[in-house]
Amino acid sequence: xxxxxxxxxxxxxxxxxxxxxxxxxxxxxxxxxxxxxxxxxxxxxxxxxxxxxxxxxxxxxxxxxxxxxxxxxxxxxxxxxxxxxxxxxxxxxxxxxxxxxxxxxxxxxxxxxxxxxxxxxxxxxxxxxxxxxxxxxxxxxxxxxxxxxxxxxxxxxxxxxxxxxxxxxxxxxxxxxxxxxxxxxxxxxxxxxxxxxxxxxxxxxxxxx
Length: 209
Fold this sequence. Notes:
This is Biopolymer transporter Tol. The chain is of the alpha+beta class. It has helices at 4-16, 27-49; strands at residues 66-71, 77-82, 89-94, 99-100, 113-118, 124-131, 134-141, 146-149, 158-163, 169-174, 181-186. α1 packs antiparallel against α2.
């Protein structure tokens, strides 16, 4: 969180007071200070509310470690783990637009993020996050801009999560039996599926004869 923005703005406005004639001071100075504080507050909230994205012409690769790539089913979005901001974080890149995508509401910036996996159109993103020193599987919904911990009550170690194209199933490795095994988590039939735009959902009706 960058706390320098409001301090710099206030300092500049206050210093300008001594450069303006006394007959211009008063109401106009107060209005300027109020406007400056408003702009600073919005800048501060924007800095806190969205993850830090690579700036300028930064591409997929950098001089830092970029690893563990995952491609969405439609081939448009690429997610991977990058160390370019001084920590392990998941980045999302739109290959068609050649730009990084913001991930507001993603798990805390202080948490270690690894092993991303994308659904068909990149709506759902599952990844490993470190919580209290233990790995947990998190699911991020880009439409809702919310993160859900899928293994919050799961007592065993987990790794390498992968999500199905429709976003309903998550497969992962677990050490539940003292060795690495494979488990599948069903998010349930009420999960909104990740479908291509314009796709229709057909419900199968079983009829007894």
